[in-house]
Amino acid sequence: MSDVPREVVLVRRGTYHDSVTLMRVSQALSGLPGVTSAMVAMATELNVSILRELGFSIPESDPGDLLIAVRASDTETAVEEADRQLTASRRSDPAPEHQPPLTTRSAAREPAGLVLVSTPGEHAFAEALDAVEAGLPVMIFSDGVPVWQERLLKERAEARDVLVMGPDCGTAVIGGVGLGFANVLRPGPVGVVAASGTGAQQVTSLLDRAGTGVSHVLGVGGRDLSVEVGGLSALRALRMLDEDPATELIVLVSKPPAPEVARAVEESLGRLRTPVVRALLQEGAPDLTEATEQALRALGRPVPEWPSWPSWPGGRPPAKTIKGVYAGGTLGAEAAMITGTGDVVDYGDDAYTRGRAHPMIDPSLRVEALSHTQDTDVVLMDVVLGHGADPDPAASLAHAVARAPATVVVALIGTEGDPQDLHRQAAAFREAGAAVFTSNAEAARHARSLL
Amino acid sequence: MTLLSAPARVVTVGAGLLDDALTAQAVPTVPVAWRPPLPGTAEALAKVLADPRRPAANELAAGRLTSARPQLVGVRRASEVLAEGTFLHAGPPITWERASGPMRGALIGAMLLEGLAGDEHEAARTLAAGGVTLRPCHEHAAVGPMAGVVSPSMWVFEVRDAEHGGTAYCSLNEGLGKVLRYGAYGPEVLERLRWMDEVLGPALAAALERTGPIDLRTLIAQALQMGDELHNRNRAATSLLLRELAPAVVEAAPGVAAQVLRFINGNDHFFLNAGMAAAKVSTDAARDVPGSSLVVAMARNGTDFGVQVSGLGGRWFTGPAGVPDGLYLGAYGPEDANPDIGDSTITETSGLGGFAMAASPAIVRFVGGEVADAVRATRSMYEITLAEHPAYQIPGLGFRGTPVGIDLTLVARTGLLPVVNTGIAGRVAGTGQVGAGLVEPPAEAFTHALLALARSVSESFE
Fold it and tell me: What total of structural domains would you count in chain B?
């Protein structure tokens, strides 16, 4: 066997796998001995251009085809491994004549209570509309859905009396069932309406820490409170929580709504019998942690100290700049507001997630960002736990944190019930030299204090 | 307003990771085996799906298709219903220049039968010169199997929809082997057609006057339960029809009754043409519903495969007809096969044929494959259809109704094309049938139709 890397690009016509699965297969291949570079991806325009940049020449293919591109000393073994992993990711058919549903419309022939859509955004509309037409509530995890489609879905949902959560709805909890990126939360009296997924995760994780659980977390998507969409889902979600016997207090988490929509929201809030705490993420308004504390006080419950783990003292030069390296957009915005620096990058933004998985699953962009820091930087970053998120973020990120020249402050968003083990994660990041906070606001204040 | 409670089951579509996250919480899921839509359709799909008329339009169209009550009311000479100087043919419009071997053969045969040419060469010259108007059967409320050529002295079944009042016609079946519909025009072919004109047609017409309307909806429903799928297997339906007709034929035409009944009995496909007229009258009931994406016709002329859509009137959307994959008679092989031909895909359009294969385990011996393939074919068609037929049921699937009402948007979304059972015609004019099998329609016929429907939606709202 020669050690000179050889290159192979295979086209599997009409074979589809979702981007998260493909990202994992690509990572597994890249980790094999003798593999210089490997990418397994659908032949979308974007992926083809990435592969060309990596120096691969791509045969004629269309976006419905799968590409396996490998540069390795033994390409055959790498391709075999790719096929093995792709086959393993397919569910086995119970019977040869079994026909899996190919559309949401078809799947909804069986009784179901909810539809969760996470296809690429340009294709999410058809599936979500199927759900609405079948009279089922739908959560659209996908981002990049055109706003006219969002508006239309929510109008049709009004007529069918169902809730559309999203698009770009990262988290929801309904009756204890976590959808998307969802923390494991104890049941309780607080209902959350969230136009921001990570914002809701911060509030509910802190509530959980304080011993207070949630009834439901209803995500509505980041654009719901815009003029174009008019808050249709937020208003519906507020009414639903108001009528819900388990909900004693509502927390509304959102960026400030468009002024026209804000009026409608305020009017709607005035009609509710259930008290509402607003976490609106604007200058002068309470941050997410303070809003959580307000909610606790409104329920007459004590506000605890939020757990944090200080860093080991290090011998770094005095810090000069804060660099935000965020996966959660709202958490990043909160950090920017508190630290007063605009140098916060949201790696969960559409611009970074097109054609690749969310940074809460795929750490590679943030690992790279950490390696480019200076020893006079303070890196402020979030690590979000829960179902759907990276099964062991410390394994993917702690090493990069340890090697980063910068001082690192981690906002660790999660609960003790989360599958990643909050305490183990905190210990691993602390071990890597970071200061760890469960409140993002406290993390941001700490970072600012280091300057 | 819906009360908030934990969903007992969640439909997941997209990233497997999010389905896994639910499974980890012990929540049952129904994962959709999603894949991207046919290339180039994403934008048109969104437009057509967003059309506020679509759900009601499709419900209406599918409802009309499945509630049609086709009845065989008569047998008539085509000259009574056909303009002079016109021949009908299968599939979308075709010219002599583009016509395939079997289509040309059948047209030549019709010229000879009608005495419009002394020999095949003269017939070909006249046809090439446009001496006869060629029109699709579908434009004249008719359908024809294989070449589907109908000329004035041929006889046609007349089927009426007792529910919606439509009428459809289909020629009488000549039998298997060297026959006009497969492009054969030898002396024995013409002799049989003349006998059908002089003896069979009048005898059946007289018999049907005695029987009164024969309920084809019930007959087809029974035949499905007896193992027919009504496209490539019509043995049970033919037997049932013969049973209905026999006493009346004996009474109406005692002198020729034995020949007539022997002819019908000798052709397992005799019912096919009556079934096609029943399918045509049913799908015609679903036509012209504005905003509907329901397919109302699929038909091939041996060169092109064409579809028509309820919301798009009489427009054809075509792609190249494929060569069927199947079993060949005697020494024939794939190199002898003509591209797909015939209006008989109207059976699939109405929820029979390939769509009802699970009802017909015996068919797999004829088209190749295993019984499980037949079941799989039918099950897959529920993914691209709007309804389950209330009367046409499949015993082996727990009497589930056959999948019926192909929706363009579902074809584009799933990339799944209609399953079509078909006979295979010889490539060379005059050869006749060379086999039978399955054929895949060209995706572009459906893609073109979807893009046109999207344009028509924009026109209605801009």
Answer: 3
Q: Is residue B4 part of a domain?
A: no
Give me the pLDDT at residue B345, please: 97
Q: Chain A: give the shortest CA distance to residue B357, in Å.
A: 13
B74 by Cβ neighbours in 10 Å (0-12 / 13-18 / 19+) ranks as middle
Q: Tell me, what's the pLDDT at A301?
A: 96
Whether the per-residue pLDDT at B257 is higher than 60: the answer is: yes
Position B253 scores a pLDDT of 96
Is A119 in Cβ contact with B10 (below 8 Å)? Answer: no
Mean predicted confidence (pLDDT) in A90-98: 60
- Check CB contact under 8 Å for B33 and A102: yes
**Same domain, residue pair B313 and B366:** yes
The residue range of the domain holding B14 is: 10-34
> Chain A contacts of B416, Cβ < 8 Å?
102
Of B18, B409, B415, the CB nearest to A116: B18
For residue A199, the distance in angstroms to the closest alpha carbon of chain B comes to 20
Q: What tokens appear for B400 in the block?
A: 């589930």
- Within an 8 Å CB–CB cutoff, is residue B26 touching chain A? no
Q: What ipTM is given for this predicted complex?
A: 0.93
Please check the confidence at residue B218 and state whether its pLDDT lies above 60.
Answer: yes
- Looking at the fold, whether B267 and B328 belong to one and the same domain comes out as no
Q: Tell me, which fold does domain A113-298 have in CATH?
A: Rossmann fold (3.40.50)
Average pLDDT over residues A304-318: 84
Which CATH code fits A6-89? 3.30.70
The residues in B 409-438 lying below 8 A from A, measured between CB atoms, are 409-410, 413-416
pLDDT grade, residue A3 (50/70/90)?
low
Judge if B199 and B296 occupy the same domain.
Answer: no
Structure token digits, residue B244: 């209905």
Residue range A308-449 in CATH 3.20.20.330: no
Confirm whether B201 is domain-assigned: yes
Do B271 and B415 sit in the same domain of this protein?
Answer: no
Do the Cβ atoms of B339 and B302 come closer than 8 Å?
Answer: yes
The reply to whether B273 and B363 lie within a common domain is no
The pLDDT of residue A95: 62
| Residues of chain B found within 8 Å of residue A239, distances taken between Cβ atoms | 1
Q: Are residues B293 and B419 in the same domain?
A: yes
Chain A contact for B372 (CB, 8 A cutoff):
yes
The number of C-beta contacts closer than 8 angstroms across A and B is 200
Name the residue with higher pLDDT: B453 or A374.
B453
CA distances from A445 to A160, A164, B18 (A): 46, 36, 34
Cβ contact, residue pair B36, A63, below 8 Å: yes
What is the per-residue pLDDT for B32? 96
pLDDT above 60 (res A74) = yes
Asked if residue B1 belongs to a domain, the reply is no
- The domain segmentation of chain A, as residue ranges, is 6-89, 113-298, 308-449
The answer to whether position B199 is within a domain reads yes
pLDDT of the residue at B1: 44
Q: Are A383 and A348 in contact (CB under 8 A)?
A: no
Q: pLDDT at position A85, please?
A: 86
Contact across the interface for B3 and A244, Cβ inside 8 Å: yes
Asked whether the whole model's pTM tops 0.80, one would answer yes
From the list B9, B17, B49, which residue is nearest A112 (CB)? B9
Q: Do domains A6-89 and A308-449 have the same CATH topology?
A: no
B110 and B186 housed in the same domain: yes
Do B173 and B255 reside in the same domain of the chain?
Answer: yes
> Mutate which of A65, A123, A132, A240 to test chain B, going by most B C-beta atoms within 10 A?
A123
Is there a contact between A207 and A295 (Cβ–Cβ < 8 Å)?
A: yes
A1 pLDDT higher than 50:
no
**H or E stretch covering A260:** helix A259-271
Residue B2: pLDDT band (50, 70, 90) is low
Surface-to-core class of residue A11, CB atoms within 10 Å of its CB (0-12 exposed, 13-18 middle, 19+ buried): middle
